[in-house]
Fold Protein kinase domain-containing protein.
Amino acid sequence: MLAVNFTYEPGERGDVDERNAFWYSPSTTEWFEKRGYILYEPVANDRSMRTMMPKLPCVEEIYEGEYPFAAYDGTPARYFPDTPFRAWEFNGKVMFAQDRQGRHVAIKLVRLETEEYRILEFLRDLPLDTLEENCVLPVLNILPIEGFCFVVMPRWGVSINHPRLGTIGQVLQMMRDILKGLAFLHSHNIIHGDIKLSNFMIDDFRDSYIPENCAFRFLRRDEGRVRYAIYDFDMSRMVPKEINRQDYWIPTDSGYAWGTFNVTKDYAQGELEYNPFITDVGCLGALFSGNFQDVIPALPILAPLIDMLTTHKLRQRFTASEALAFLEEYSSSLSEEELKKPTPEPDYNYIRQAYYEHDRWASVPPHLAKKWEKYREPPVSWKTKLLRRLFQYGWVYHLKVILVRKFLARIPKVWRTIVSYFSSPFRKS
């Protein structure tokens, strides 16, 4: 009986050497082979055992892909001609394999009865065409063992923004697919909790360690054949379906905070509660700002879109579905010629600013700035600036910040009590 004999907690790195020893042990290999999966083997010259390659030869050097399985390019690399499909996994949480048809999959170890397990089980039971349409990486199989399970997903590609997106249409498609994925999760009351570029995938791959030849991805992007998908639910949570997402405000000192990190200024004022759905959207806006700031001169719609994803007026912020509708309405108005317009050349001396510092409206034409003025982020008030200054270390939850905020929240009430006391007609002179 296969058993996990090491510490394994969601979101924690753990002992990678122990994990690798488990994955590459003969008993693990045999267990998976009996269930139809041939695990990759470690690359011979990698002592860390973090890079691996397929055991079975690939029938085709270039595979066009058939959903849910990704396309791949196995043309030999210049310096590594014998390892065209190497996979690299830093934390030892995922092993790659091939099924009996030689199709490539990723297998993740997940603890049973966790939020991640519940979400992956939910996704496994959905039709593939639903996940394809809504840009969520599908779950093909779940293999249980005592206390854990192995979640089988198709192997897709990493580094979705490499190489640089070449046209306005390509930028819009990537943003649309990312928004689709998050909107779908939110529609089922799933909080992702860890929005970052590495948690989105693209449906083609080659050597993931040194992806030097990107011609195949260039071609697929140019022909509009790529798909992007959201995945990785280590830090995710599914709340009951009857809960209204917009009213789901929970204490900032609750056990479930905001994922592995918080890249927004949403709670830099020492807030006592937060909305994780709104935080997901804000983190996505920060991601868009950080990756597409230099595209705004050619795609000015990004200025109002990013503002509405990251506005400090949290209750006025776009939901993921509202942002998707806003972007799709604009995209549908563009001609084929406008979609094929090249993205601006990158300025490698340009340092990307934080989303709350970047002046994204500077390059927006005046007539469009007027048209979109209702979406423009209003100036931050002096009170907010003061609170941010006071709680400048409040990006990560800290008990003292919350205590000070609670004290400040009582001040208006105390002041009203004093005024009421001195203005009372029954007060003795």
Remarks:
- The longest helix spans residues 399-423.
- Residues 421-429 have pLDDT under 50 and may be disordered.
- The chain is about 35% helix and 15% strand.
